[in-house]
Amino acid sequence: MNNNHYVAIMAGGIGSRFWPKSRVNYPKQFLDILNTGKSLIQWTYERFAAFIPVENIFVVTSEEYTDIVSEQLPGLLVENIVAEPSRKNTAPCIAYISFKIAQQNPNASLIVAPADHLILDNPGFQHICAHAIEFVERNQALVTLGIKPTYPNTGYGYIQHETESVEDNVYRVKTFTEKPNLELAKTFIGSGDFLWNAGIFIWKIGSILVEFEKHQPEMFELFAAEKDKLNTPGEKAAIDQIYPLCTSISIDYAIMEKADNVYVIPSSFGWSDLGTWASAYDNLEKDYLGNAIAGNNILVIDSTKCMVSAPHDKLLVLQGLDDFIVVDTKDVLLICKQDREQEIKEYVAEVKRNKGDKFL
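The structure assignment produced for this chain is given below.
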């Protein structure tokens, strides 16, 4: 444990690709997607609490989810639940928490991670994080963790790095590429110098603030002008004033693709971003016909390679389906071909257009 080491867990998303189980008022980071007995944010918190002081762990979430965070993470300090007044993507979120922590400890090193990722090898993850922190404490660098790809996934972003390392397992980043098509993903895999973008970042607080000032000067000035109000009773009023003026932009577009001091550490620690039902299928146990079952009362007959989720107290009988996603909740039933699951966000938009917000 080191008092200069901090974590910001980002937990403000609505997880629309996990609809209908993930809802606007109770999104996927607070759900037990894999039937483990714990929600994704609980696993994430425990993973970091093993090597980061609890008082240095922050959760940045939407105002509407602060009570859920408090309920699910009783060990988290209430004052470390940081509420965003609106969703503005990851750059304003990271600017906010960075300025806030800088006011407490300008010497802080910060790990930024999503709340809803699956990591199976916690000791391996801890080792990589320690390596990254040690590197950024010696260099004014921004580090991202890249996952060694196992197949040409079209749902992930990719990071290309230099072939020669700057030191043990640390490489300078050449390019970021958003979700490629299958042919391009196959080319990336074949080249050997592309990694999946895990969206986990490590840097010194001072280093990231320098990059915000350089590449997002308007956003930087908004927070800098009010920084003395952070960690005081005036913080909420200041943030309520700042957020409507912030551009909605990801940290990748805002900073990582522009900065010239970005490095990647190739990693293997059993990672999945659990972004879709297909990723849940990949990480659940299967029966002898390849069906992944999440629910206590599900009977699957003459069906293969299906992802099936239903409430534990509900009987669901499935017959004659192959390669389908079947998700049943108290008020919505989704039946969708597995190879069309990237369209679930479009189905959610269609539901909103035709039925309003009731089922979202």
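Interim note for the steering committee: DSSP finds eleven helices and 17 strands in the chain. The chain has a mean pLDDT of 93.
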